[in-house]
Amino acid sequence: MLFSLVEIPGREEATGMGKPSAENGRISFSAFEKAVRDAEDQKIEALVTAPIAKRSWQMAGIPWAGHTDYLHRLQPRAIMFFWSPGLKVALFTHHIPLRDVISHIKRTELSDFFITLHRNLTQVGFSPSSYLVCGLNPHAGEGGLLGREEEEEIIPALLTGRESGLPLEGPHPPDVIFRLARARNSAVVIALYHDQGLIPFKLEAFEKGVNVTLGLRFVRTSPDHGTAFDIAGKGTADPESMVQAIILADTFAKRGFAPRAASRKKQSR
Questions:
Q1: Number of neighbouring beta carbons within 10 Å of residue 14
Q2: pLDDT for 230-260, tens place per residue?
Q3: Pair 180, 187: CB distance under 8 Å
Q4: Strand partners, 48
Q5: Do 197 and 191 meet the contact criterion of CB atoms below 8 Å apart?
Q6: Confidence grade of residue 15 (pLDDT, cut at 50, 70, 90)
Q7: What angle do helix axes 22-40 and 67-74 make, rounded to 10 degrees?
Q8: Going from the N-terminus, what domains does the chain have, and what CATH number goes with each?
Q9: Pairing relationship of beta strands 210-214 and 219-223 according to DSSP bridges
Q10: Which one of 42, 97, 186, 223 has the largest count of C-beta atoms within 10 Å of its C-beta?
Q11: Which of 49, 43, 84, 83 is nearest to 64 (CA)?
Q12: CA 219, 220, 222 angle in degrees (round to 5)?
């Protein structure tokens, strides 16, 4: 694995640590934007991003809420996926208000998501034994008694996916699905919104979890945690999630994860 250091103009203007600032937001975005350009130009095969302060980006006038939102500019169908040895979770929706989630739970969008997720995981050399799909409502709707989304949108999407040969299961009640997944190491949980998937994932795998953006033309990973401003400069931060993000990025890159990388290998023969 090779690394390169790139100077970013203005980094001498960085201000302090442990708090958001417009200057730091501008510098971190400039570094990220340069790395993405290098990945798009095939100068690098993998991008590993460190945590950012979204507030700093906002203070600097950056119009994106974070790395993943910016990357969706490149690939609107990119998927937010979380990887650990014992638990793997894909998010159907992520950085949207909870009140807006229900309007996104539509059978066509879900069916497309299932197919796209499976294709992207196959590309990185991972073939899940099953996809465990969360219900939206308590008890997965209890047959329509606690909500109709399962009956009207989620189950029809599951049936369509199964007809395509995908090993889809569910919808399972959200309060038990992660227990099922822990007993089946090669299963993937499909959570319908951000906290539904990330609360149990971070409880289980906070130290070794990795955030992966699937569907890009290059490998992108990051730690599964934030900036931890409260311990900045104290020497107590645990680097393990960043270490695992680097290792996973290297693993995926070697598998020819990115379509561009695969095409280059084909042309060189």
A1: 14
A2: 888 888 988 999 999 999 999 988 876 544 4
A3: yes
A4: 221
A5: yes
A6: low
A7: 30
A8: 1-75+211-269 (3.40.718.10), 85-207 (3.40.718.10)
A9: antiparallel
A10: 223
A11: 49
A12: 145
DSSP run (H or E) holding 80: strand 79-83
Q: What is the pLDDT of residues 88-114, one digit of tens each?
A: 999 999 989 999 999 999 999 999 999
In sequence order, what DSSP letters do the residues of 4-54 get, joined into one string? -----TTGGG---SSS--HHHHHHHHHHHHHHHHHHHTTS-SEEEPPP--H
Token pair for residue 73?
């500019």
Encoding tokens for residue 33? 């934007």
pTM: 0.85
Amino acid occupying residue 154: I
Assigned token pair, 48: 């590993």
User: What DSSP character marks residue 154?
Assistant: I
- What φ, ψ does residue 15 adopt, rounded to 5°? -120, 115
SS3 state of residue 190: strand
Token look-up 């311990």 returns: 231
